[in-house]
Amino acid sequence: MPGRLRALNAGVWLLRIFWWTTLIATVGLAVAAFPMLPVDWPAWAAMLAAVVVVESIVFWIGIIAVYLTSVQLGLRIRIIGIVCGWIPIANLVALRLIIRTCREEVRFESDKERLDASRAASRVCATRYPILLVHGVFFRDSKVLNYWGRIPGELECNGAIVYYGGHQSAASVEDAGRELAGRIRRIVGETGCGKVNVIAHSKGGLDMRWAIAREGVGGLVASLTTINTPHRGCGFADYLLAKVPDGARKKIEATYNAAASRLGDTSPDFMAAVRDLTQAGCARINREIGLDPFPGIVCRSVGSRLLRATTGRFPLNFTYPLVKWFDGPNDGLVSRPSFPWGDDFMWIEPAGNRGISHADMIDLNRENIPGFDVREFYVSLVADLKRRGL
């Protein structure tokens, strides 16, 4: 068990000990109060003080441990714990929620560790060609906050060699495609790998289709798997673009481009990216490069559905009902009809009432979702490429 999990598990046990010993001590102090008070109140007060000191030490060590090491608590549960910590009864309910969440995290991650250890020798993700992960719009590849969450680490743990697109956060499909083509040529030229297997999320799928169709890197790509890519655009984006006043649009554009430039983009173009994501923009792109899969390249696509706005994470839980109104079943951003492309299409809609959002598909929030293990899903995608000899 890694150090983080050991610390988290220790914190959970301390909080469980605190829960039960506090309950027992409270009952014991209440029972002792009848014969001891008021005559022997100093002894009773001393027992109370001892209980408070010991329980406080156990609680604070436990709560600090879980707050520092848990991934699954998230901001919401942490805030609930802080706010409810000062409210009698509510603090006990919040503590039970924290313990239950962290205990499940330890169980899930321990099972994941055992699974990876059991198949380490087989290197299920050791594909013939390396994996190139291509991000979507309004993000950049970062070691500090990986766009792909825990996915790259899981792939590498199972034998994969992983590279990143490294392209700008906002640009037209044409410009991003040209940038990605250059990145692929550099990887192949520097490593001698021959080709790459590309997994592209959201707009990254459009960028890669352009790179293959127009930038001459088709011979350097063994496979292209698009994840929740709006191949036919987002009707919701068309609506917003039409409704946002020109002055507000220009202000948003200027603010974003300035921020992106400071973060590393050489020539960010917010509006070019947005226009290419609309239904009209994608229709134009599809007329120019076609929608058919590329000969000699394994072409696959994946899409998912978020079932309820309340189960997603901001901002996609906010946009989900609006996209549903305009486009129907969706992942919080892109509707189902826009996802299918290539020779195979996979639709992700696990049992239950949560569903899987646009951000869930890249593990952006590092959330363990009941019924859908996103890391294992990517392992299965890459393992399939290995079985195909790619």
Strand and helix layout:
Elements: H1 3-36, H2 41-69, H3 74-84, H4 90-118, E1 131-134, H5 151-157, E2 162-164, H6 173-191, E3 196-201, H7 203-214, E4 221-227, H8 235-243, H9 246-262, H10 270-277, H11 279-289, E5 298-304, H12 316-327, E6 344-348, H13 374-387
Parallel strand pairs: 1-2, 1-3, 3-4, 4-5, 5-6
Helix pairs in contact: 1-2, 1-4, 3-4, 6-7
Question: What would you note in describing this structure?
Answer:
- It is a single chain.
- This protein is of the alpha/beta class and 390 residues long.
- The chain folds into 2 domains: 115 residues, no CATH class; 264 residues, Alpha/Beta hydrolase fold, catalytic domain (Rossmann fold, 3-Layer(aba) Sandwich).
- The chain is 54% helix and 8% strand.
- The protein is built from 13 helices and 6 strands.
- It is elongated and about 90 Å long.
- This is Triacylglycerol lipase.
- InterPro entries: AB_hydrolase_fold.
- Keywords: Membrane, Transmembrane, Transmembrane helix.
Gap between N and C termini, in Å? Answer: 33 Å
Mean pLDDT across every amino acid position:
91
Q: Which CATH C-level class of the largest domain is it?
A: Alpha Beta
Principal-axes shape call: elongated
* Regions with little confidence, pLDDT below 50 for 5+ residues: none
Describe the main β-sheet briefly.
Answer: 6 strands, parallel
List the domain count as a whole number. 2
What is the percentage of strand-forming residues? 5-15%
Give the proportion of residues in helices.
40-55%
CATH superfamily annotation of the largest domain: Alpha/Beta hydrolase fold, catalytic domain
How many β strands by DSSP? 6
SSE succession: HHHHEHEHEHEHHHHEHEH
Protein name: Triacylglycerol lipase
Keywords: Membrane, Transmembrane, Transmembrane helix
